[in-house]
């Protein structure tokens, strides 16, 4: 349990730095009046570059007891629908990062010195009173570089499985890959929803997510 809490804290810290960056971006224009005037074109180019860097969060590095995490790609406006049967679900955000585990937690990552982590923040809601099974948090992930991995149930939040009536769930789904910074697209394979008797209510989904760096 402690390991899971520390890992979750590391993710929150990474996202928190992005939020701080956005707040700073909103404050900076107020200081422009006291700065030395620059050409309009140069000023516009600089502002666009700063805004893109802060909104993407690319290059952000956070260190914790777990190790050092560096963000490679982040899309906080993914908003991709993955509805299935009576379940309305959305992949809200995605992040690709590298993790260099500390010696204390390297065993949790198969003894690897460096891994690549895909994190998707998602939400799901059963829209009927009947029990529905939808295993969004057990989706298989395939990269365009040839890796196939199951989601890490230990580190991921419980946002799938059995929905006892009109239940809402949200949280992070995590996949741990061998170190690979060349990934430009991931594909999720999600099993279709079923009822309490495991009769199919929806078709299996294949969801492609491009990582435009």
Structure description:
Helix 1 packs antiparallel against helix 2 (40-56). The chain is of the alpha+beta class and 213 residues long. 28% of the residues are buried. Helices cover 20% and strands 38% of the residues. The radius of gyration is 20 Å and the shape is elongated. It starts with a helix and ends with a strand. Mean pLDDT is 80; it is low at 15-36. The protein contains two helices and 13 strands. It has helices at residues 2-27, 40-56, and strands spanning 61-63, 67-75, 80-81, 87-101, 115-126, 131-134, 140-143, 148-150, 161-164, 168-178, 185-190, 194-195, 205-210. The strands form three sheets. Strands 1, 2, 3, 4, 5 and 10 form a six-stranded antiparallel β-sheet that branches.
In short:
This protein is α+β, with helices and mostly antiparallel strands and 213 residues long. Helices cover 20% and strands 38% of the residues. The protein is built from 2 helices and 13 strands, in the order ααβββββββββββββ.
Number of strands: 13
Biggest beta-sheet profile: 6 strands, antiparallel
Helix content: 10-25%
First-last Cα distance: 34 Å
Tell me the strand percentage band. 35-45%
**Low-confidence regions:** 15-36
State the order of secondary-structure elements, H for helix, E for strand: HHEEEEEEEEEEEEE
Total number of helices? 2
How large is the radius of gyration?
Answer: 20 Å
Notable traits:
six-stranded antiparallel β-sheet, four-stranded antiparallel β-sheet, 213 residues, alpha+beta, 38% strand, 2 helices
């Amino acid at each position: 349990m402690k390991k899971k809490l520390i890992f979750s804290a590391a993710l929150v810290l990474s996202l928190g730095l992005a939020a701080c960056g956005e707040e700073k971006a909103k404050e900076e224009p107020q200081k422009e009046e006291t700065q030395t005037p620059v050409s309009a074109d140069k000023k516009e180019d600089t502002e666009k570059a700063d805004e893109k860097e802060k909104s993407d969060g690319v290059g952000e590095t956070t260190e914790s007891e777990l190790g050092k995490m560096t963000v490679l790609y982040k899309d906080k406006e993914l908003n991709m629908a993955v509805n299935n049967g009576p379940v309305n679900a959305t992949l809200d955000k995605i992040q690709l990062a590298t993790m260099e585990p500390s010696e204390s937690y390297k065993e949790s990552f198969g003894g690897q010195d460096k891994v690549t982590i895909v994190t998707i923040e998602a939400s799901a809601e059963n829209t009927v009173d009947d029990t529905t099974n939808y295993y969004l948090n057990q989706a298989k992930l395939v990269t365009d570089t040839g890796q196939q991995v199951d989601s890490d149930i230990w580190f991921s939040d419980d946002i799938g499985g059995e929905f006892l009536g009109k239940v809402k769930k949200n949280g992070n789904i995590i996949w741990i890959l061998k170190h690979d910074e060349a990934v430009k697209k991931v594909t999720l394979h999600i099993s279709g929803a079923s009822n309490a008797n495991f009769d199919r209510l929806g078709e299996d989904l294949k969801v492609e997510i491009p990582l435009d760096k």
